[in-house]
Amino acid sequence: MKKTARGFTLFELAIVAIITSILLATLFSRVLFYQEQAEKAAMEQVASGLQSALTLQYGRLLTHGATNKLGALATENPMQWLTKPPRNYVGEFYGVAAQTIAPGNWAFDLQSRHLVYAVAHTENFTPKTQHDYLIRYQIKVEQHSATQNTSSLPSITLSVVEPYQWFD
After folding, report:
1. What confidence score (pLDDT) does residue 164 get?
2. What is the mean pLDDT of each run of 10 residues along the chain (168 residues)?
């Protein structure tokens, strides 16, 4: 009796190719999702670092008794408070628009005094304005009403100018 070597049939090869394609497509979509999540986390980390730097500036002014200068913090570029700005900070511009900075970068708008981040991965990002994939931050100084026999210090925060949604 002769044994013949038998390989894959064309049908079996097609099934393997289809399964491999489905697995690769799933993997590719997950990689894109995780890239977007990494971008979101990096952006939020920079914003958090800037909030900490703002708190330090606020504390510095309070300890020097310069509470009258707190309002000036709202016009400053918060990136200047960092020891080293992030690599994706491209500088100051007058009138930042979506075309001004490349996606994935930070810039400071000298006109509006906003810190701006251009979103790179926009698959799960919903801007307030259509096709405006910029997230704008501003420094807000809010004076609280003083209670009886106490003076109230203003609060100062780095906050988002326009709401956006970045789905997880």
Report:
1. 84
2. 72 91 89 90 93 91 84 90 93 85 93 93 81 88 64 82 82
* pLDDT for the residue 153: 75
The Cα–Cα gap between 114 and 135 comes to 10
Please give the pLDDT value at position 146: 58
C-alpha count within 13 angstroms, C-beta hemisphere, residue 126: 4
- Among 73, 72, 120, 114, which residue's Cα sits nearest to residue 96? 114
pLDDT of the residue at 96? 81
Q: Distance (Å, rounded) from C-alpha 7 to C-alpha 73?
A: 74
For 90, 115, 128, the CA distances from 161, given in Å and listed in that order, are 20, 10, 10
Q: Are 115 and 106 in contact (CB under 8 A)?
A: yes
Cα separation, 164 vs 129, in Å, equals: 9
